[in-house]
Specification:
The structure holds 2 protein chains of 2 kinds. By secondary structure, chain A is mainly alpha-helical. Chain A is 70% helix and 1% strand. Chain A has a single domain (5-329), classed as ABC transporter involved in vitamin B12 uptake, BtuC (Orthogonal Bundle), CATH 1.10.3470. Chain A is globular, with a radius of gyration of 20 Å. The model of chain A is unreliable at 327-337 (pLDDT under 50). Chain B has a domain at 2-107 and 136-212. Classes of the chains: A mainly alpha, B mainly alpha.
């Protein structure tokens, strides 16, 4: 194929992505401090989750606020397969991803008929229904949650995704997850789907007139996004070793997952990464240094930061380091209004 | 049933404020519950310091919230509405950030434990209405909500109300007939927050106050507004009453801890057939 500026740019993105992966792979090695390592793992995990959300919310433009549900379903499915059927989480997390994707389709089927804020609020409500049902469902542990057992007979193992002696392997699990999410987004950007989804996002009426099938496009984006989020949930469950609805399915998580993508640069390849790299350490650090006594100062700083970034850089933080952000169709008129 | 009716009226009033703001400028205020929380704290603090009965605080707190709403519009929303990129998402996350900030501020000032207005003219009294005993605070809250609602409807009939309506229809054209869009939007935020202020005062007479109390009511308010149709006051009233009933019936017939699932399910069911809510035109 003849080299165009687009193929050159996409090759550069792959090279930068690979370099970044290498840096992140060695980053925690010299760090012995458990707290800092945890911070890195959570940041990488959220970069992956935000990227997963970005596929539906950014590229396809559907502001979904029910991703806590897919995250929680992934966490619960892999955990239940482990505790009830002794299926290793390495397989279980794909089952969790499958169920997460299926759940996203089930939610999408009624909700994608709605537009704008009706869609956003309907997804909030669906997420809340899931949370309440799990909270009252005794078979899955109800409000007490599930402790994830350490399978003693096998010890630390990749197959069972359990590491007690050294938590470092979880970093590589999270990194693999984030890399896959990034690669999926990269593939989508270059594929026909990516162009179709952007048309659905920018101008659904025009897209329909060009025979773009809008509903199936949204469903495909939801399935991919939900499945990735479910896998992320399963990895998180294994990492923290305990799940309950208040830790993996609570309503605010549905906003925390898209937050890095939105503040970093929605619908861009690097936005979710940049957003997570800035936001997650800041929120964790303010929480541990200022929020310990429950004084609320950490929340004030965090909330203020979100407001300031959203207003000052509506196109996302990634634009500061030269990531190109396209203004959506009609944005100029809207700005003039 | 009567309890559901009275709760429904409060839901309707909270939702009316949200609906007003949405209808006017296409903004979903994710800090709406936190405005309610602030109104409840304001009532609590003034009551604690001066000993004035909450009923006397209706007007002052409503005015306080009105001012707060106007301030939020001028400081944040005017900017959020004029951004060039991702306007929908920017407004969601600006109001969400504001919610976190206000929650943190409340926690910082009052601590995270529950507070309540323990003594007022209304508290602890019940009234016998044809054999049904109704707690007086709830009854008063319902009646006051109804009055506030009537007031909102009245405002929408005045010249100012027509200016609101005109701005909603076409925010650019109104400039040609001498309406200042910024002023109208600010008034919309003020009125929306003021409605929440009244609901907050009445709620404070029988409901505990905590920094996170708003979240629950906000969620119900979103459902109410979407069910009634964004921008429709009558829709908010009908939907609020409906949701109050569904909540009470689910708690009674199925399981108290699932009462919200009942109202959410009804809402989703209605949206299947009327994707813009019962009375929505937007």
């Amino acid at each position: 194929m003849k080299e165009t500026s687009i193929t050159r740019r996409r090759r550069h993105e792959l090279i930068i992505g690979a370099a970044l992966l290498l840096v992140l792979a060695v980053l925690p090695l010299p760090i012995r401090d458990v707290y800092t390592r945890n911070l890195i793992i959570i940041t990488v995990l959220f970069a992956g989750l935000a990227q997963a959300w970005n596929i539906l919310g950014g590229y396809c433009g559907q502001i979904s606020l029910s991703h806590a549900l897919y995250f929680g379903v992934g966490a619960y499915v892999s955990t239940l397969l482990l505790t009830r059927l002794a299926i290793p989480p390495t397989f279980g997390m794909f089952a969790g991803g499958a169920l997460g994707g299926l759940m996203a389709l089930l939610v999408g089927w009624p909700c994608f008929r709605l537009s704008g804020h009706y869609y956003a609020i309907a997804t909030v409500v669906v997420g809340e229904i899931g949370y309440l049902l799990f909270l009252n469902w005794d078979w899955v542990g109800g409000a007490t949650g599930i402790n994830i057992p350490y399978v003693r007979s096998v010890g630390d193992s990749w197959l069972w995704l359990q590491f007690r002696i050294d938590k470092l392997p979880y970093h590589y699990a999270a990194l693999a997850f984030a890399s896959v999410a990034w690669l999926v987004a990269w593939l989508i950007e270059g594929s026909r789907w990516g162009f179709v989804w952007r048309a659905v996002k920018d101008d659904p009426v025009a897209a329909r007139s060009l025979a773009v099938r809008i509903f199936p496009s949204k469903m495909a984006a939801a399935a991919i996004s939900g499945a990735l989020t479910g896998i992320g949930g399963a990895i998180y469950a294994q990492y923290v070793g305990y799940i309950d609805p208040d830790s993996v399915m609570y309503g605010q998580l549905s906003i925390l997952i898209p937050l890095p993508a939105v503040l970093g640069g929605v619908g861009t390849l690097w936005g979710p990464l940049v957003g997570a790299a800035v936001l997650i350490p800041l929120s964790e650090l303010t929480r541990s240094y200022l929020g310990g006594s429950g004084s609320g100062v950490d929340l004030m700083i965090y909330g203020g930061l979100i407001v300031v970034v959203a207003l000052a850089r509506p196109q996302g933080l990634a634009s500061l380091i030269g990531v190109r952000v396209r203004a959506p169709a009609g944005a100029v008129d809207a700005a003039a209004a | 049933m009567v309890g559901g009716l009275l709760m429904g009226l409060i839901y309707a009033l909270v939702a009316a404020g949200l609906s007003l703001i949405f209808g006017l400028m296409d903004v979903v205020n994710f800090a709406h519950g936190e405005l309610l929380m602030l109104a409840m704290y304001a009532t609590y603090v003034i009551w604690l310091v001066t000993g004035l009965d909450p009923l006397l605080l209706l007007v002052p707190v409503a005015l306080l919230l009105f001012a707060l709403g106007v301030a939020i519009y001028h400081l944040l929303m005017a900017r959020a509405l004029s951004v060039r990129f991702n306007r929908g998402m920017v407004q969601i996350f600006v109001t969400f950030g504001l919610a976190i900030l206000l929650r943190g501020a409340a926690q910082f000032t009052f601590g995270s434990d529950f507070k309540s207005v323990s003594k007022s003219w209304l508290s602890g009294k019940t009234i016998d209405l044809a054999g049904v005993y109704i707690p007086l605070p709830q009854l008063a809250a319902g009646v006051v909500s109804l009055f506030a609602f009537a007031l909102l409807l009245l405002i929408s009939r005045t010249e100012f109300g027509h200016a609101l309506e005109a701005t909603r229809e076409d925010r650019d054209a109104v400039a040609l007939i001498g309406i200042d869009r910024n002023r109208i939007f600010a008034m919309g935020w003020g009125l929306g927050a003021g409605a929440v202020g009244i609901a907050g005062v009445m709620l404070a007479t029988f409901y505990y106050v905590s920094p996170s109390v708003g979240a629950n009511f906000a969620l119900i308010a979103y459902v109410t507004v979407a069910l009634g149709g964004f921008g429709s006051l009558i829709g908010a009233l009908v939907a609020g009453l409906l949701i109050g009933q569904v909540e009470a019936l689910t708690a009674l017939l199925i399981e108290p801890s699932l009462k919200q699932v009942g109202m959410f399910a009804i809402y989703l069911l209605v949206l299947m057939f009327r994707p813009r809510g019962l009375f929505g035109t937007l």
